[in-house]
Amino acid sequence: MSLPADLQRAEAPPARRIDWLFWIGVSIVSVVVFLALFAPYVVPYDPTLAAHRPSMPPPALSDWPGLWWGRLTGAIEAPPHWFGTDANGFDLFSRVISAPRVDLTIALVANALSLFLGVLLGLVAGYFRNLLTEGMMRVSDVLQSFPVFISAMILVALAGRSTTNIVIALALLYTPIYIRLTRAEVMTQRVRGYVEAARALGNRESVIALRHVLPNSLAPALIQSSVTIGFAILLTAGLSFVGAGVRPPAPEWGLMISTGANQIILGEWWPSVFPGIAISLTVFGFAVLGNALERRYES
Amino acid sequence: MGQSKVTAAAALAAMALSGPLYAQDLLFLAEDVPAGLNYDGPAAAIPTSQTGMVNVLEPLVGYATQAANDTGVITPDFDSFEGRLAESWSFDEASLTWTFTLRQGVVGCNGATFNADDVIYTFERAKSVSGAAPIGWFLSNVASIAGFTPDVFGDEAARALGPEVQKIDDYTVTITQSEPNALFLPVLTIFGLYIFDKEVMEANATDEDPWSHDFANNTDVAGFGAYCVERWTKDDEIVLAANPDYYRGAPAIERVVMKRVPQSSNRVVILRTGQAQLVQGLTPREYDSLRDADGIEVGGVSGNENLFVHMNFDVEPFDNPLVRKAIAHAIPRDQIIQNAYFGQATPWEGHVPSSYPGYVAPETQYEHDPEKAAALLAEAGYPEGAGLEAFGEAFQLSYVAEKETTLGPIVNAISTAMRGLGIPVELNPIPQTQYGDRQLVKRDLPFAINDQEKPIGVDAGYASQLFFVSPEKGGLNNMVNYRNEAFDEMWSKARVESDTAKRDVMLAEMQGMLMDDVAWAPVVEYTTQWAYSDSLKGLQWHPDNSIRFFDLSFE
């Protein structure tokens, strides 16, 4: 006797599908993190020394194998300028792979600050609902209503052009996102049975909020982190592009694109294109990782 | 295809931005438009502001011209003056008095007729030192016009114009000097003593602002120049209409639209499309890229533009001459000429433009010599830069952020060379306005790169007075707070020396002092250039590097 076809399908073990996007995201983010940690040890040249012939184009792709071989065998003494050099005489390859140290550090620190602040305030706003926390939410709404990039420019312009001020500006601007996410999650958690049980055991409200509700409300904010880090990198680069970010000659993708943009009219595409590809890939990596994590959490 | 799309987009943008253009209009693209039209105002030092002033106002005298150079640019003959608003003049050596016969029938933009009252008003205004920058007073002082002394800053009575500038009749004025001074006529050619239209200026005065500074800073300025302000929107554009009654004949170009296009690469694109006919402020490579372009000419002169490193004498450790000398020896001049100027510059061996009368290249020179620089640093007590980290703030190398494209390769080359010696240089790009304020007014920039100082008075003595005489003794733009009593003393003698040969000897000695003291660390002199449509003719260079649109015509 055989089972009906639909029942057979229902009982078959689910096919294991590889989440390609997740693994692409993980790979890109891993490379970026690796470069942020170890770029100084792997760069062929100091990324801030203008010691090369300026505006050298990158070698043709067909020459790359020969150059690799030459380097491996020692036939070529100086490392090639894989991405060419810019108008200042910087080695672009060294600068592109050194940039995560600047961009990712700013993004990670800003995100950590905003995550900490946002989760804490979101917990308070979601768990202890009163006039004060409602007022806090309205302030958060107002902050979110301004365009992020314009607000960041204004904050950096007022505070001064430094890495610390960029971090503070980004942290301030991203905090409301975490407040809102955490508050929404806390509001669903606070009516769950385990909260009632904790209360029945005589725990104080603050203890319940911190020990029981907070750990169960963190997932959305943590998933959002991946996306926020990607956008923080983009925003950092954007600020540098308009001259409000890090100072030259720091190896930073936005600054490199900005410096190279003027050379495009002269046919020099490489100073802008390579950092442009790097930043696109990085933001894409963080975005798909966040997206994949979100899907996993929801399922 | 990509290139043509960019070009087409730029053309559309140019048309949209500039409004309607007529057959005889000129679209001139620059890095900025005038920020003010008042030469005693805060924008006086900004080159694009000077372009506005020199086209609307007119001098008493100007330089005659000579043949065009090999790039087609006409240059002045510094040995020959010609009358402008003054038709002729004479000088009485006994009384040190100049008598000017003024031109009759000169009509300004608002219909007023030029006469001696306008000259008197101009000098009264200069002596009032009522503006943000007393340029008119400074020039009169440099020319030794009697009564234009530093007393005006402390004594209100000293600000009233006395008999030193006197109206004899409607078309005759006399100007008396306090001492013989060869700079008198050269100074009258400078925009900071161009003549105002008294009638219109007074009509725009208020009780709080009797000399109409606000009007000239923000609205218009009245004079007897070839062009009149038709429309002026700061940070965007200024439209100049030809003065049909201009005394040298109506300008060939009826209307000039001077448009702000901050990115030099965008100026290149718009010029290439043919929408603009004249651009300035490109990078040397951009000029190179246009030399072979169809329908475009690139012209230029080795005039008076230069680049130097500024070290503030009032800031440690730049008060130590050994540190200054070490830094001067560390500057990679050849690398800068090749990599930043692409050969369109030459090493600068003095503190005065080499094209100026009285220039000498002193015996002391600071060639690029890292070993010598390291030895000097060690002698100063900072072997391999050890100890200099205590002066981190001082080693922030400031430069104008808006000039990143041009100055970026230079500051990076310098900072790379310095760091090789252990000098902890950090780059500090700051906005043009902030740079100008800290340089000219506060004089507190510790360490900077400067490529925008040109002594408009064509004389080594004028440059000395402007940049190197002690601030307390009238060094108006002594941005590094250089003080040398022997230098001041020598200049006080040279400025009244009527024997040119003797004066030149003293000026040479003064230039030697500047080099020995490393008053500035001179780097290069670079070519002043413009790119323009090949149908545009008559381009002339003037020492202020501002184009006079009256000189131009379309073929």
Q: Could you walk me through the main structural features you see in this protein, from its secondary elements to its overall organization?
A:
- The complex is a heterodimer of chains A (299) and B (555).
- By secondary structure, chain A is mostly helical.
- Chain A contains 12 helices and no strands.
- In chain A, helix 2 (20-42) crosses helix 12 (270-298) and helix 5 packs across helix 7.
- Chain A is elongated, with a radius of gyration of 25 Å.
- The two termini of chain A are 35 Å apart.
- The mean pLDDT of chain A is 88.
- Chain B has 555 residues and is an alpha+beta fold.
- In chain B, 31% of the residues lie in helices and 21% in strands.
- Chain B has 17 helices and 21 strands.
- In chain B, strand 4 and strand 5 form a beta hairpin.
Question: Can you give me a brief rundown of this structure?
Answer:
The complex is a heterodimer of chains A (299) and B (555). By secondary structure, chain A is mostly helical. Chain A contains 12 helices and no strands.
Keywords:
heterodimer, A: 299 residues, mainly alpha, elongated, B: 555 residues, alpha+beta, Dipeptide-binding Protein, domain 1, Dipeptide-binding Protein, domain 3, 7-stranded mixed β-sheet, 4-stranded antiparallel β-sheet, 17 helices, 21 strands, 31% helix, globular, disordered N terminus
